[in-house]
Design goal:
single chain, mainly alpha, f41 fragment of flagellin, N-terminal domain, two-stranded antiparallel sheet, 62% helix, 11% strand, rod-shaped
């Protein structure tokens, strides 16, 4: 065989091998609709895809955390709105019954029943749950935090990471809201759990002892025991105690302010978390688009190239069949 013929055959075989590989690659893309099925398909693009997927996974985790915190904070704020409405109604009643010249013992005893109902409403709010977790129990989310106005939860704040350098407390302990406890936390490392009971992040958390000391006037530390304030008003109404009713007005006023401050704190956290959710949603979308631009194949383009590659492969096979056929000259000297 002449050297020129041999070289032609080698070129044909090389072309045939390349067309077969191209055909196999396109068949793989058609099957998965991915341009990159292994790093060697496009090392640079594969690296970018890996980076974007890592960023996407991180953003999605922070988004789940933020949405969880947002739900908890929204529900807590809504509950405190109801609590505030109940206290405002209690104040209206106290003001209407504080003047001995415009009411009497019979009407006061009758209106005391509404205060009793408000007390029960407040107790229901204090023991409110989201899912199967009590929202005002601190870390004690599985146990009822209030029984007859006594707090059995703790002062724990459930911290959750909402971005790489920021955490937010997604709850407000019941002793802060209902008993007026000033939070002076001792920080310690503690494992957090999310609302679904899945083990979550480690981080500093506020912890307090479960013992409670409540003063006679309804004050707890420098705040107000809202349960005791409302109960005092009920007792004063039933006993026709004008002075007691008048004194209750100040306590209920302080209770309203206490709830307003708690709602303000929750609102501030909620605004921060809501903004973070919007930022993370955009981050997730941007990373998904970036991954798709590198990784996803266009169906029309893939099948067009596949048809073209199939035609090229057939042509290569026909050409190779003609050139590689043995001739009589191959067997002569």
């Amino acid at each position: 065989m002449r050297i020129a013929d041999k070289n032609n055959q080698l070129q044909v075989l090389k072309s045939l091998s390349g067309n077969r590989k191209r055909m196999a690659d396109l068949q793989g893309q058609a099957a998965t609709m991915k341009k990159i099925n292994k790093p060697s398909d496009d090392p640079v693009a594969a690296t970018r895809v890996l980076e974007s997927k890592t960023n996407l996974h991180t953003a999605e985790q922070f988004l789940r955390n933020s949405e969880q915190a947002k739900r908890f904070l929204e529900f807590s704020e809504q509950s405190l709105q109801e609590l505030s409405n109940s206290l405002i109604r209690a104040k209206e009643i106290a003001l209407s019954q504080a003047n001995s010249g415009t009411t009497n013992a019979i009407s006061r005893r009758a209106i005391a029943e509404e205060i009793s109902q408000l007390y029960e409403q407040m107790n229901a709010i204090a023991n409110r749950k989201i899912g199967d977790r009590f929202i005002f129990g601190g870390f004690q989310t599985m146990d009822r935090p209030f029984t007859d106005g006594k707090y059995t939860g703790d002062s724990g704040e459930m911290l959750i990471e909402i971005n790489g350098d920021s955490k937010v407390a997604m709850n407000m302990p019941g002793d802060v809201v209902f008993l007026g406890k000033s939070v002076d936390p001792e920080k310690e490392e503690i494992r957090q759990r999310d609302l679904d009971g899945v083990e979550g992040l480690r981080g500093p958390a506020s912890v307090a002892q479960n013992t409670r000391s409540i003063a006679e006037e309804g004050a707890y530390d420098n705040g107000v025991d809202i349960f005791r304030a409302l109960k005092r008003l009920e007792i004063s109404l039933k006993s026709d105690d004008t002075t007691g009713i008048q004194n209750s007005i100040d306590l209920i006023d302080s209770s309203i302010n206490q709830v307003i401050m708690a709602r303000s704190e929750l609102g501030s956290r909620l605004n921060s978390v809501t903004n973070n959710v919007e930022t993370l949603q955009k981050n997730v979308l941007d990373n998904k688009i970036l991954v798709s631009s590198f990784e996803d194949a266009d169906a029309f383009e893939v099948y067009s190239k596949l048809n073209q590659a199939e035609g090229n492969l057939k042509a290569s096979l026909q050409t190779s069949g003609k050139l590689i056929q043995p001739s009589l000259l191959d067997f002569i000297g």
